[in-house]
């Protein structure tokens, strides 16, 4: 239910162990489908990296003074707050407007194999570089869009999920504290009532002298929300270790990150890799 960051090697083969199951036509199709998806990811990553070098060269002149910019993340897998979305590498394009402390973004998420699609609208305002208030709308269209109902906002059957959030980033401490709650939309419990799924995250970031960054975050759901399938209350659902750096091409730097994500509640772990592009 939402965003905004991945190879999951456990999805490539499921025949490890003592008892190796018989490889059926279906499992072979799934295996070759995964191989094609990852091959497509590597080819796309190579092409985007090459084409981006020329774009980086002129982006400062082309975008100077404009509050608008385009950004894009290419990730080996979509993992958000300890939850997995889709089954293949995912592209996150975004159109952004930033002016002083205000930021507005129209963004999407599209898995290479069509297993996940997402359209998001986000607004945020930062107060004194310390508190950021946010409002996000998450929507998940169908694969081809024929059965979508984007403009249906009726509380009882809308497909939208509206989230309000507040993030505290102390100016003298390299930490953050985030609290978010789904306040409207499709976030319903088993009785059909609004679940108000609530998530809290505490994080710490260390910045090295070369500007590389190492982050550690702990995320907890605070009630019976979608993070635990509306079945259990407070649980640790997200432990993330993330390292951010750059690939260097002469005088150009391409931002990259690698993350290890653990969801103790679901007994799942992921390792992800992302590259980032921006005209800002």
In short:
With 280 residues, the protein is mostly beta strands. It is built from 1 helix and 14 strands. The radius of gyration is 20 Å and the shape is globular.
Topology readout:
Elements: H1 25-63, E1 68-75, E2 78-80, E3 83-85, E4 90-99, E5 102-111, E6 117-127, E7 131-139, E8 161-168, E9 175-185, E10 198-207, E11 213-221, E12 235-249, E13 252-263, E14 268-278
Antiparallel strand pairs: 1-4, 1-14, 2-3, 4-5, 5-6, 6-7, 7-8, 8-9, 9-10, 10-11, 11-12, 12-13, 13-14
Notable features of this structure?
mainly beta; 12-stranded antiparallel β-barrel; two-stranded antiparallel ribbon; 14 strands; 280 residues; 46% strand
Number of strand segments: 14
Largest sheet: 12 strands, antiparallel, barrel
- The main sheet orders its strands as 1-4-5-6-7-8-9-10-11-12-13-14
Overall pLDDT level: 84
How does this structure look, described?
With 280 residues, this protein is mostly beta strands. It is 14% helix and 46% strand. It contains one helix and 14 strands; from the N terminus they run H-E-E-E-E-E-E-E-E-E-E-E-E-E-E. The strands form two sheets. It has a twelve-stranded antiparallel beta barrel with strand order 1-4-5-6-7-8-9-10-11-12-13-14. Strands 2-3 form a two-stranded antiparallel sheet. Strand 5 (102-111) and strand 6 (117-127) form a beta hairpin. The chain starts with 24 loop residues before the first helix and ends with a strand. Mean pLDDT is 84; it is low at 4-33.
């Amino acid at each position: 239910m939402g965003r905004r960051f991945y190879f999951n090697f456990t999805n490539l083969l499921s025949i490890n162990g003592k008892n190796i199951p018989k490889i059926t036509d279906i499992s072979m199709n799934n295996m070759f489908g995964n191989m094609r998806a990852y091959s497509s990811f590597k080819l796309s990553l190579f092409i985007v990296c090459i084409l981006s070098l020329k774009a980086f060269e002129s982006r400062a002149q082309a975008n100077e003074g404009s509050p608008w910019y385009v950004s894009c993340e290419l990730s080996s897998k979509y993992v958000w707050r300890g939850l997995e979305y889709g089954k293949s590498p995912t592209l996150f394009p975004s159109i952004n407007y930033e002016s002083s402390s205000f930021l507005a973004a129209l963004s999407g998420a599209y898995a290479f194999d069509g297993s996940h699609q997402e359209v998001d609208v986000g607004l945020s305002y930062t107060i004194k570089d310390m508190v950021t208030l946010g409002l996000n709308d998450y929507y998940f269209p169908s694969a081809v869009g024929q059965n979508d109902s984007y403009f249906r906002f009726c509380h009882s059957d809308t497909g939208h999920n509206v989230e309000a959030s507040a993030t505290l980033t102390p100016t003298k401490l390299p930490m953050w504290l985030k609290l978010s709650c789904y306040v409207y939309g499709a976030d319903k419990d088993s009785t059909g009532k609004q679940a108000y799924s609530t998530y809290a995250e505490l994080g710490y970031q260390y910045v090295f002298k070369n500007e590389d960054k190492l982050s550690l975050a702990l995320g907890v759901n605070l009630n019976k929300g979608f993070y635990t399938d509306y079945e259990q209350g407070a649980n640790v659902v997200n432990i993330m270790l993330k390292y951010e750096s750059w690939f260097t091409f002469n005088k150009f730097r391409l931002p990259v990150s690698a993350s290890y994500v653990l969801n103790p509640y679901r007994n799942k772990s992921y390792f992800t890799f992302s590259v980032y592009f921006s005209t800002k």
